[in-house]
Amino acid sequence: DTAVSQTPKYLVTQMGNDKSIKCEQNLGHDTMYWYKQDSKKFLKIMFSYNNKELIINETVPNRFSPKSPDKAHLNLHINSLELGDSAVYFCASSQAGLANTIYFGEGSWLTVV
Amino acid sequence: GNSVTQMEGPVTLSEEAFLTINCTYTATGYPSLFWYVQYPGEGLQLLLKATKADDKGSNKGFEATYRKETTSFHLEKGSVQVSDSAVYFCALNAGNNRKLIWGLGTSLAVNP
Fold this sequence. Notes:
The complex is a heterodimer of chains A (about 110) and B (about 110). Chain A is an all-beta fold and about 110 residues long. Helices cover about 0% and strands about 55% of the residues of chain A. Chain A has no helices and eleven strands. The relative contact order of chain A is 0.33. Helix content of chain B is about 0%, strand content about 50%. Chain B has strands at about 5, 10-15, 20, 25, 30-40, 45-50, 55-60, 60-65, 75, 85-95, 100, 105-110. Chain B is globular and about 45 Å long. The chains are: A mainly beta (about 110), B mainly beta (about 110). Chains A and B meet through strand 5 and strand 10 of A and strand 5, strand 6 and strand 10 of B.
């Protein structure tokens, strides 16, 4: 049983298109995240939700819009895709707390052509 | 502000060699410290953690000790295997906005 699952795993799309990545966690956690990892493996947090409330919203173009319909789901919608959006996007979840572990999904490889 | 600095890679070792990946941090208060590992084609997973000074985290033969006096959390393994080839991330949580602060990652390649 996958703890944090995200779909699709691979996504190739043209510039200007709109795409969504879906994420679900079955761990009962109250906090979910979206991270972006570039080709140099640099990891950058984009958004975080706690109990469906947005608590972290880093400097991200407003073409990126997260949506959390409930505690177990956090989706990411991207409008007007650009070449620079090509990256791996990771969904993750945790229980709020200093020492708590973050559990990551397997990633969604987005390539914009 | 809070920050994590880890040694740059890539690191290339032969099987059974000793591994050290340095990690130092800057933080207010008493952060929790973590090492995460990312195997090729996968998401990150927790390798070990420590929540207070002098705590030692350990897992899969890896160890790291929370040293407040040197603000360090160096990762060590006595004898690496090819299967340890991965990217290793040091991270801290100081409680600010519930955000984990990540190092840049250190790529490790172990040759047979």
